[in-house]
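The instructor's notes for this session suggest beginning with a concrete chain rather than abstract definitions. Hand out the sequence below and ask the class to guess, before any prediction is shown, which regions might be ordered.
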Amino acid sequence: GPPNWPSAAYLGVCNTECPNLGGTSMGFKPDDWVCTGKYYGTGNRPNLNKDGIPKITEFTPEAMEKFVKDIKDFKDGDLKDQVDYLTSFFLIKDSKACADTAANDADECSVCYPAYPSVAFGGAVCFPDPDWVTANKDKVAAVFKGAYNISFVQEATAQIFGDGGDTTMRVMSDALRSYPVVLGCIAFSVILGFVWAFLLRLFIKPMVFLTIVGVLIGLVIGTYSLYAKAFEMRESPLYDADGTFTNYADATMGFFAFSAACLALYVLTLCCLWNRIFLAVGVIIEAAKAMQRMPLMLTVPIVPALLTFGVFCYWMFGNFWIASVGELKLDGNGFAQIEYDNTLKGMLAYHFFGFIWTSVLLNHIAWAIIAGAVSQWYFARDKDGGLGPSPILASAKRVLFYHLGSVCFGSLIVAIIKYIRYMMNFLKRYADPENKCYGKLVKVIWCCIDCCLRCFEKIMEFISRNSYILIMIESESFCTSARHAFGYLVSNLAGLAMVQSIGDLFLFLGKVFVATMSAGLCALILTSAPQFNFATTSIVLPCVTVLIAAYLIGSMFMGIFEMAIDTIFMCYSIDEDKQLGYADGALKDFVKASAENQRKNDKVSPAEPANPGVVQVTARSAE
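After discussion, reveal the predicted structure:
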């Protein structure tokens, strides 16, 4: 709405561009002013390059007083437009208020202010240059004699962002100036994702065993160090004499006990589940072989990621359009807010659910494509020449033409759970925006509900992933495939636990590798390159931005390997159960051992089929 001038709540004005962007001095000349009302923008101002018009020669109290006096005394009927513009300067303008009902171009609503040097943020918001404000706010106050207090912008920023208003503006300025480095390092993280996947294919076996041994050595060293330190502290004269020292000693002993228990559990797991550990290693190795045979698999998540970004942009613009339909209501202070009826609220909720379902669906389509390609590789007799020219494109065709309905159904279930969880959190924040009404019991209940929904969401995602694998192998419906997949997984719980734990460890290491290397490169450039070292105050926000973005990109690449591992394990479970003989490498020995045990049991008593309802895998369905 029109500005209410003068007003203690007046914080700023809308403009077509950031005024005095990157400047080093106050824009005190009339051509540089920032105006409201009929002088908004720069294209509707009179020509000031005419003779006889008073001018401001310098930014001093004397020059400003002379300019104000000259304008008030200036009389020239031929220059009425110029005089009207100059008399809109806030030092000359009378205090007649601009009513909310007044027209935007009303004379009382047209006020001009000098433009402080600004920095742009997000392409839509301008903040005062914090360095310039700190160095010149006293001079500005002296020139305008308290009529223009630029520190109010700092106070308003502190109210919006917290007590660190200046810090926030500096951080935003650093983010603006370092964005080329941030974008470059994020692009570098994509290259690192390919590098990690390549290294994983080449050195997967030694990396797996080094990780197992490394965890054991780390636990032994940590447990021994805690043991030595705990007993050293307990034998110290300060023990029992100094309460703080005693608490530290007891805490160290507690950590030693916990570390010893973890070491014992880890050793026991290695001893009892050694064969299953080898099974997990074999599954991971076979997944790496599949990725090596089909390098195009690394590009599968890129298209869904780009489409998800496009859907996100559509969702954001859709929200803006829906929000603009609301009713704009002005208050008495010149501010306005938009009110929505139930129909518009329902449209926003429906639009949000559409965004969730679409983004989940795109991710699940990528899972199904990877599952189809990897399962085709596993059940191929000739794993080098029997896959066809492009197994990835063939798998994508099968998903989109024959199994898209099943993928839509699985993604719909996950999307509904996500939507319910998001709505629950929204209701919690909406009901108590200042976090003052809820007691501890209510907060605990909310957290329990959110935790249960999150766990249910993860369970359904796990079931959906394995269902897609069975769908691509046996061409059955989603529910039937989910039931059969659950049966296969239950029959190999120990192997599943090892595969998930060891596989997740490697996936996490890959994510950390991509994220830390990218963030480290960003920090190195910002601290060593002069054009960025002198232009930025802190490297925290750029590095954190790169770290988060690179971790997400690393997660995208590691998600390919995770889906390949899950597919190989499911194919192995089917192969072991039906004795099909498709296993290769390390998994072949496990299938043979399982077949020998089955034959021994058959000599004792006829064995019943483990999964009587599962369709047998044939050469045709495996192609």
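Then share the key points. The longest strand covers residues 118-121. The beta strands are 34-35, 112-113, 118-121, 125-128, 327-330, 336-339.
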